[in-house]
Structures are given as C-alpha cells and as structure tokens.
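Run log, item B.
One chain of 299 residues. Sequence copied directly from the ordering sheet:
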Amino acid sequence: MSGFVEKPEPIQVPGLVHLHTGKVRELYRNEAGDLVMVASDRISAYDWVLPTEIPDKGRVLTRLSLWWFDQLADLLPHHVLSTEPPAGAPGDWAGRTLVCKSLNMVPVECVARGYLTGSGLAEYDESRTVCGLALPEGLVDGSELPAPIFTPATKAAVGEHDENVSYEEVARQVGAETAAQLRQATLAAYSRARDIARDRGIILADTKFEFGFDGETLVIADEVLTPDSSRFWPAEQWEPGHAQPSYDKQFVRDWLTSAESGWDRRGEQPPPPLPQHIVDATRAKYVEAYERLTGTSWS
C-alpha cells in the first residue's frame, strides 16, 4: 500500500479546470487550452507522499527547471510559455507556476545514467546489465560508467514504481523513429548538464526527462534536472564503493528508516510527520543545490 498519506483537495481557480494531482504538482488547463503546472512543497519517499511539506521546495524546483531550460535551449525546445500565475490564483502560486504548451506526451520516463547506483546497481549486481545493456565487470555503487547510457522506464501511477524497460521495448511501444529521438535527446541533454554541473563541483549521476511532441517537434517537458528528478552528488566527496552523499531527500529517507521514526516501510501504515530538524536539513540541501548549480543566491 502506498500513495498519499492525505491527498490534498485541489484549489479551484476561475477559468482553470483541474486535471491531475501528482506527487508534487497540481495540473490545470486554462481556457486557451494551455497547461498550468503548480509545484507544491510536497515531498515523497518510498512511494508515499508525506504529510509534512518542505518550505520553498516547489519554488526551488520551478526556478531551477527554468534555469536548466535556458541551458538546454540550443539543444531542445521546451514547453514553458509563461511564469505568470493566472488571474484569480492564490498569491502562493507566485514563483511556483508554469504555463505550458499542451503536448502529445510520450509515455516513457527517459532516464540517462552516467554513474551506477539505485535500481541500475540492483540490476547490475544480478545480471551485469542495466535495461538490457551489458556493462563491464568490477563496477560498484557510485562507479562512473564507460559512457552515459539511456535506461528508459515506464511511467507509473502515484504510489507505484516506475519499471525499467529495454530500448527494444520502448521502440515497440512508441515506434523505432521516436525511440531513437528519445535516446538521442536524453543523452544530449544529460551530457550538456553533466558538464555544466561538473564545472560547479557537482556530479550528475543520473536524471530523468519527459518529452512530448508539438506537431512533429520533440519538446522537453515537465521539470528538468532538479533534485527531485536527478541524483546530484558533491564531487569532492565522491568515493565509489558505497552510497554517495547527495543533494536530495536522502535526509528524509534516512530518518524514515531510522529507529527514531518508528515506521516500518514494509508495513501498511503510512509514514509519520517529519521532525523540524529533518525539514530544515532537507530544505537546506535543495537550496544549496540551486545555489551551487546556478551560481546565484536563493534569497
């Protein structure tokens, strides 16, 4: 069992139709047919959306995505039309709203990995492959791969795991030409972002993108290269052979699996509220990632 500890009631705004409540974002459609994405401060772990929010998280994700869209603009068009909240929206929507072009979305999580960890490591330990791609012997948690690889996954509902699939399976689902476009775009965007992050002392271990079509044009969508969609590691602490320190919600995961939380992640009870020190530490990591990557102060 998983999902929302307590699913929020969506805010109703005149002229907007509410379409979907995701783990972090609320999705609306405006009268012009554009999508309005609002990033909340919700945080998820172990397939649960937790009852405690992380202040400013939605704004960090939004501002960082916009910064990355600019860095990738010569490689790929993006879907953002405006950052202005619609008339009548709550004041809290400022800084966390994106008005976006409605695309024909491709139902594939496009994952690029430059380092071995997470579900890729688990598969490698069993078969020396990731998504059917053979990898050399001797790799460990945190190892840099010989070259970045495209390891797609199927999109799952809230509370379910995305499932890694082979490139051949993606080609069967969306067609060989689209699959080739997805792989090329994913690896190009990852390589650009990896180099930018490396110059700022951060390792981009892996990341996931979502794409859609505007007519015949492939467009990058949703959020990009945030601590929610990527693994960012401090380069100065990189040491293969164990889990790496990271700019994400690891504080949350570690606390939830600690004796202090009293929560059994394999049981049926939802996770408890987060203590203030975990909230503060997690917020600080999100802000630090933003500041190191962009070179600008958050405040």
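Observations after the first pass:
- Residues 22 and 89 are 19 Å apart (CA to CA).
- The helical segments are 57-71, 118-127, 167-174, 176-199, 250-256, 276-294.
Flagged for discussion on Thursday.
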